Amino acid sequence: MSPHNTVLVLGGNGHLGQAVIRQLISQSIHVISVSRSATQVVKGIDYIQGDLSQVEFVKSLRHKANVVIHCASPAYSHWKTQFLPMTDAIIQGFEHSETKLIYADNLYAYGQHSHALTETDAYLTTSTKGKIRAKAAQRLLDAHHKQMLTVSIARGSDFYGPNIKHALLGEGVFGAAVAEKSATYVGNLSARHSFTFIDDFARALILLALDHEREGEVWHVPNAPAISPREILHKVYQQVGAPLKITNVQGAIETGLSWIMPSLRAIQETRYQRDFDFVVNDRKFCRHFSFTPTSLDEGIAQTLAGWKLSPFTVAA
């Protein structure tokens, strides 16, 4: 298969990588998935196992595709030691090739702002993970401006979708709803929050891969209009047809539990995203690509359908 008809998906075993692969396959595009795991999640496609922090391994990929969609990330607990080395290896491995690299980023770099986030906002982050994300994005954009490789960056908010377990709208919400148990939400239930439907994130990455007019820029992935988590939970349980009960982890309770729960402790430095309004301005992407994001009602319906097919066990 010619590299001109092939897309390389880095981190193809992750939730976002899988969503990208599904959409590429639906468009009859040849896909090669790359992951550090020995287990191939998406079957029926070409798969390469390897370590993206190793320059020589990345160099071995450079002639396999002209488009690379970068969804890879080290384990959350290893960002401090592995994220930037992986970013540098990817830049060095693909530099001065014909590769176009689309990077799936998040919003950590911005830190806390008092308005809806735009692509031109300053990086005000004070968190360790936010600074890592900011440096990684800047290194990729610097490589683009130095004509080392072609880069575009798509930034998504907290995403949700079928069988995404570890997320604000993950097992504690959708898994609980399917099991007709009490929902668990970490953060302020009344603060408006932009959530990204994972298939919209995948669509946005693919559109950027196909676009040649506005390269070397940051783009916000479109989201349904931001509403409060409480309103979202009402929608979820209304679709299930179950009464809504909420266990809310916030404030002093969240602080206390973070001392004994490593997963909760790991997200304390981005607590502002959950304690206050956290809204994304996505007009730039919507206007350029005439993009309409999936509505919350439709995203919830698709997510519930996925959970009903493969439910996780939720404690009473």
Query: Taking all residues together, what is the mean pLDDT?
Result: 92
Structural class: alpha/beta
Q: What's the CATH architecture of the largest domain? A: 3-Layer(aba) Sandwich
Mind describing the biggest β-sheet?
Answer: 7 strands, parallel
**Number of alpha- plus pi-helical segments:** 12
Unreliably modeled segments: 312-316
Give the class-level CATH name of the largest domain.
Alpha Beta
Q: What does the overall shape look like?
A: globular
* CATH evolutionary superfamily of the largest domain: NAD(P)-binding Rossmann-like Domain
User: What percentage of the residues does DSSP assign to strands (E)?
Assistant: 15-25%
The succession of helices and strands, N to C, reads EHEEHEHEHEEHEEHEHEHHHHH
In helices, the fraction of residues equals: 25-40%
CATH topology of the largest domain: Rossmann fold
Report on the structure:
Residues 7-219 form the NAD-dependent epimerase/dehydratase domain. One of its GO terms (cellular component) is cytoplasm. By secondary structure, the chain is of the alpha/beta class. The chain has 2 domains: 3-157 and 196-220, NAD(P)-binding Rossmann-like Domain (Rossmann fold, 3-Layer(aba) Sandwich); 162-195 and 226-277 and 294-309, Alpha-Beta Complex (UDP-galactose 4-epimerase, domain 1), CATH 3.90.25. It contains 12 helices and 11 strands. The strands form 3 sheets. A 7-stranded parallel β-sheet has the order 3-2-1-4-5-6-10, sandwiched between helices. Strands 7-9 form a two-stranded parallel ribbon. A two-stranded parallel sheet has the order 8-11. The longest helix has 18 residues, at 128-145. The N and C termini lie far apart (51 Å). The model is unreliable at 312-316 (pLDDT under 50).
